[in-house]
Amino acid sequence: MIKVISFGELLVDMLSSRVSDDQDGKGTESETERFTKYPGGAPANVAAAIGKLGGHSYFAGKVGADMFGDFLVQSLEAMQVCTDYLLQTSEAKTALAFVSLDKEGERSFEFYRGPSADLLFGPGDFKPEWFENRGIFHFCSNTLTEPGILEATQAGLDAARAAGWLVSFDMNLRHNLWPEGADPFESVWACVKQADLVKLSAEELAFLCRHTDEATVLKQILSAGASLILITDGGKPLRYYTAHQTGTIQPPNVQVIDSTAAGDAFVGGLLYRLSELDMSVADLEGVGTDQQRLESILTFASACGAHAVTHAGAFTSLPSRDEVAAFMACQEDAQIT
User: What are the two backbone dihedrals, phi and then psi, of residue 86, each rounded to the nearest 5 degrees?
Assistant: First the structure.
């Protein structure tokens, strides 16, 4: 099993006790709203998912030398994530995100991030020895929002690619994290073109298609060097694209409680399987020609995502390997009956 480094933001999700209705976004007026802290941040969720499954998971990033930062370090370690690459600083506080849910379990966010500790991770914080041997480097677009953290992200990408690591990019675009008037398009495209594995939501694919059609964009991503493109759309079929084939995987049909970690659990399950298979860049290219093997990997990842939406919170919703196996067995039994 090879090492996986997930890089980016690690923050505290303050999850509201109030479930909003569909019309006004507010809960019952008589209900006292309370917020409970949970560890969060998309790449941190992915790291935790890999660790919970039993993978060789590392997280690289920065949090404050404060009570929230200590809480996050402890939370990752409880998920069997190595925190040797997680730095703490007294120069800024740990980021917070206040999260509300609607009746369908869909989220809305209010971020308290700038300035925050995660943005202070610098290019020099990446160390050459982190990239010894083979591995997988995973990141999202939330480390592209400011010049300093953008430079650090590129430094991590350069180190991973120079070491021959497989690079995974989940766009996870959050427009409200970008400065007012800033356009993420060029920065995001630059990262897409450096990734071997690209995961997008249907809305994020539409964002990339602002100047052209979907088929052209998918061709451009594959031509740039990606071996696998994944398009998720909630409970609708997962679409996959390689240079040799396309196809779909139907996610399990489950009752959604909280969608907070759905995509991250999916990506974590995917990267866990790739790391378990000691997947190199060349190996991923080969999987693109083997439909049965690829769909087996994606079915496992989809089960991880489906399991997550049936539980509240982010880390708290992530399954162990045994829980995924039991979940998949139940799904198979339901199909038979």
Answer: -95, 115
Residue 101 corresponds to which tokens in the numbers above?
Answer: 């849910």
Is the separation of the CB atoms in 238 and 248 below 8 Å?
yes
Angle between helices 321-336 and 291-309 (to 10 degrees): 100
* 198 to 168, 169, 216: CA distances (angstroms): 6, 5, 16
Other beta carbons within 10 angstroms of residue 225's beta carbon come to 16
At 250-303, the pLDDT tens digits run: 999 898 888 888 999 999 999 999 999 999 999 999 999 999 999 999 999 999
Percent of the chain with pLDDT over 90: 76
| Closest by CA position to 11, among listed 206, 129, 177 | 177
As given in the structure block, the two tokens for residue 140 are 């999202």
DSSP state of 251: P
- pLDDT recorded at residue 103: 64
pTM of the model as a whole: 0.91
User: What is the CB neighbour count within 10 angstroms for residue 99?
Assistant: 22
- For residue 182, is it left (φ>0), alpha (ψ between -120 and 50) or beta? beta
Can you tell me whether residue 243 is helix, strand or coil?
coil
